[in-house]
Amino acid sequence: MWEPISQPGSLSERIVTQVERLISEESLKPGDRLPSEREMAELLGVSRPSVREAVRMLEARGRLKVRHGNGVFVEAPRPQRELQAALAETELTLNELYAMREVLEVPAAAWAAESAGPEQLATVRTALDQLNRATDTGEEPDQLRRLDAAFHQAIAVMAGNRFLRQTSHVLHNMVLAGMQTTLLIPGRIEVARRDHERIYSAIAAHDPAAARRAARAHIRGAHAAAARRLATEVEPV
Q1: Axis-axis angle for helices 162-178, 141-159 (nearest 10)
Q2: Is-above-0.90 flag for pTM?
Q3: Which of 30, 114, 155, 206 is the residue whose CA sits 20 to 30 A from 41?
Q4: Beta-strand (E) ranges in 12-70?
């Protein structure tokens, strides 16, 4: 992933350019930890002061966050952080969360079907296979939630709309933080697996209409399952 700096010019600026390219290509994603200063210097073939200066510049631009004692991490884009902050102050209902999922993920599936390339399809297929293996082996709920979100987020990335990708990421983080996965509801794993395969198949077939229908049916099914579970958890007055 890292390429030695060989072009002429300011070393720190060249490092900044490479890091920003990796972030843009999503080889580096929000929350990813960069190699240590020493490792970065060796990977790029530059001095540690040059790495240090580049990190300082990237932190000033809001691209990196230095957490002293922990390392240097990729920051979420500013619009995404602002949306997270705004929504964190808002108590959203189950209906609102799933309504927003439908608004975002249904067109995302259709756009993905229109533009899907072999590498992107492979990424989505890998995410789906990882989720299927995790459900088969009885992984912990937190892991199931993360893998389920990763599958849907891979489709949002394939859709090619950066704002949608950032917004979808924030929404899934809220769902992860505030809900138990519907995959644990009896019978839901089998339904979700069929739904996911239909979504993937429609995207792979470059059929936007089928992808839209499959995504909508999946979200509405998950919403109904979550609502039924919530109703059973509420104590009668």
Answers
A1: 170
A2: no
A3: 30
A4: 64-67
Q: What region does 71 belong to: left with phi over 0, alpha with psi -120 to 50, or beta?
A: left
What band does 85 get if pLDDT is binned at 50, 70 and 90? low
6-15, 26-35, 72-81, 91-100: which is most confident: 26-35
Arch. (CATH architecture) of 80-233 = Up-down Bundle (1.20)
Residue 90 burial by Cβ neighbours in a 10 Å radius (0-12, 13-18, 19+): exposed
Pick the CATH number of 11-75 from 1.10.1760.20, 3.40.50.300, 1.10.10.10, 1.20.1250.20: 1.10.10.10
The SS3 of residue 64 is: strand
Q: Alpha-carbon dihedral of residues 25, 161, 95, 88, nearest 10 degrees?
A: 50
| Residue 181 φ then ψ, to 5° | -65, 140
What are the extents of the domains in the chain? 11-75, 80-233
